[in-house]
Amino acid sequence: MILLAGLLGAAALPATPAAAVHGAVPGDFNGDGYRDAALPAPGADVAGKQGAGAVVVLYGSRKGLSATRRAVVTQNSAGVPDTAEAGDAFALLGGHGLGWVI
């Protein structure tokens, strides 16, 4: 939980549907040829909304995943439908978010 809390400190970035940026590497969200990881944080607070949820994307590189190269995607991110609301749990699979991001 502490790891995710630290990762959630990243600035939220606009979201692009993964299908639009996939290269030849599955799980490559930014199209740089390296696998990335999406970490769900359904209990994350967003803009004062408790449990609105977020997805933290750690970008991969030749050396592996990077905790410093990351994006935090919420329902308040550009390109994501709806807005963050308390209790949304955005990152839950089958909910509003993770299935859309991946």
From TrEMBL:
Alphabetically ordered keywords of this record: Signal
Record flagged with keyword Signal: yes
Listed Gene3D superfamilies: Integrin alpha, N-terminal (2.130.10.130)
UniProt entry tagged with the keyword Signal: yes
Signal peptide location: 1-20
InterPro entries, A to Z: FG-GAP, Integrin_alpha_N
Descriptive protein name: Esterase
Organism: Streptomyces aurantiogriseus
